[in-house]
Design a protein that fits this description.
Helices cover 83% and strands 3% of the residues. The protein has a two-stranded antiparallel sheet. α1 packs antiparallel against α2 and α1 packs antiparallel against α4 (125-154). It has one domain (2-154): Four Helix Bundle (Hemerythrin (Met), subunit A). It is mainly alpha-helical and 156 residues long. The longest helix is centred in the N-terminal third of the chain and has 35 residues, at 2-36.
Length: 156
């Protein structure tokens, strides 16, 4: 049982690092290239952003599965009871994860709309707005993810 707990916790931490790293890569590296890369490089950058979506969904799915595993393996977990800080922090992490999932879904939809609104000559006004919304949603997800990590650190 101790090995299973260790394995699930390790996979959970690994998926957190992958998810946050992927979002940071998109937000810090790829999105600024859209503004400075020129018209000829924009389709390549958009394709890289689009190819990152399955990676982010895989990381979120791994977070969900390993998080549920950690929760069920814990002896302190009580369903819908919050007697101590550990339980409250776990409940807050679950709420943050749901928000992250909804924001990720919105970000994927905005990215798809931004890609479809880009023609070979440049962005339409609506496409530029969609692109900026993707950046804002990714930043929101990064901050929520850091908040969830801090909540997890307080559970020890």
């Amino acid at each position: 049982m101790d090995f299973m707990l260790w394995a699930v916790r390790t996979m959970h931490l690994f998926s957190i690092v992958l998810w946050l790293g992927g979002l940071l890569y998109q937000t810090v590296i790829l999105h600024p290239l859209l503004g400075t890369g020129g018209i000829e490089r924009t389709p390549e950058v958009l394709q890289q952003l689009k190819s990152f979506l399955p990676f982010i969904w895989m990381s979120l799915a791994t977070l969900l599965v390993t998080g549920v595993g950690l929760m069920l393996f814990s002896t302190r977990f009580l369903i819908l009871e919050y007697p101590d800080w550990w339980s409250v922090a776990l409940g807050l992490k679950q709420v943050v994860f749901l928000i992250i999932s909804f924001v990720s879904f919105g970000s994927a939809r905005m990215l798809t709309r931004a890609i479809s609104s880009f023609d070979g000559s440049g962005w339409s006004e609506q496409g530029a707005r969609f692109s900026m919304r993707v950046v804002h949603l990714n930043r929101t997800n990064v901050f929520l993810g850091i908040g969830a990590v801090l909540l997890a650190a307080s559970m020890r």
